[in-house]
Amino acid sequence: MEEDHYQVLGLQSGREGSKLSVAEIRKAYRARALVCHPDKRPDDPNAAALFQKIQTAYELLTDETARKAFDEFVRLRDERLNREHQRASDVSSKRRKMMDELNEREKAFDARKQKEENDKAEEDRAAKKLREEIARIRAKHAQKSFGFAQSFAEATKKETKADSAQSMDKENMVKATWNSLDGCGDYSAERLRAIFERFGTVEDVVIRRKSIKKKGSAIIVMASKAEAVNFWAILGSSLLDAEFFCLV
Question: Is the pLDDT of residue 47 over 80?
């Protein structure tokens, strides 16, 4: 027998359940999940299974297509149960009637039996449709969980690589600033590259100027940290000519 997903969330089932809004279903789910979460019931061996039922019920009842399939299944099931209850009551009452009504009762029973078989077949089809919808929702939920975990791992990996590369690049950089009006002239990327290649391999030169203060600046990227350190070590030595001392 299929689980009554409304009752799993503590809601009314049947016709009343089909009238509930998504907001009411979500509110009931949060209340049940808070009470029945396995972390809240560490000594209950069935806590995980119950929580899974609650999760499945919520996923199904908030999916429009799956909920319609479930409501149709509940309607057919309730109609069958009502007929069975009514039939039991009818049989008890008819036993007190006269024997001449027996044939009529048998004919009515045969007719009802045929209808019940037809209704049961329709109910089975509805139950199959419901199981397919539950499987679809579970598969979608599993795919989302896997995709989120994979994206998070990739993003973390990229961020770690970027931080590492940025840290490494800064160790290889030398910043130079100069006053364009101090008589030393201006510095182009080619001129700076020629100066700094005395200390090692220059991978890149990025010129930055601030016109308001009449100052120029540049970032020189050396091939390695050792070459950048070498520059600072011999900054004041005789290896530097007057042109380079215009750098501040």
Answer: yes
Q: CB under 8 Å to 205, separation ≥6 — which residues? A: 189, 192, 193, 196, 218, 219, 220, 221
Listed in sequence order, the DSSP H helices in the chain are 5-8, 14-18, 22-36, 47-61, 64-94, 102-171, 189-196, 225-233
Cα dihedral across residues 198, 200, 203, 205: positive or negative: negative
User: Is there a contact between 75 and 47 (Cβ–Cβ < 8 Å)?
Assistant: no
pLDDT in tens, 61-112: 999 999 999 999 999 998 999 999 998 887 878 887 877 788 889 899 999 9
CA atoms 178, 179, 184, 189: torsion sign: positive
| Among candidate residues 244, 246, 224, 236, the one with its CA nearest the CA of residue 173 | 224
pTM above 0.70, yes or no: no
User: From residue 66, how far is each of 57, 59, 122, 132, 222 by CA, in Å?
Assistant: 10, 9, 17, 9, 63
**CB-based contact 187:177 (threshold 8 Å):** no
Write the DSSP string, 187-229.
--HHHHHHHHTTTS-EEEEEEEEETTTTEEEEEEEESSHHHHH
pLDDT tens figures, 27-39: 999 999 999 999 8
247 closest CA partner among 154, 173, 184, 181: 184
Structure tokens belonging to residue 43: 């000594």
**Are the beta carbons of 222 and 172 closer than 8 angstroms?**
yes
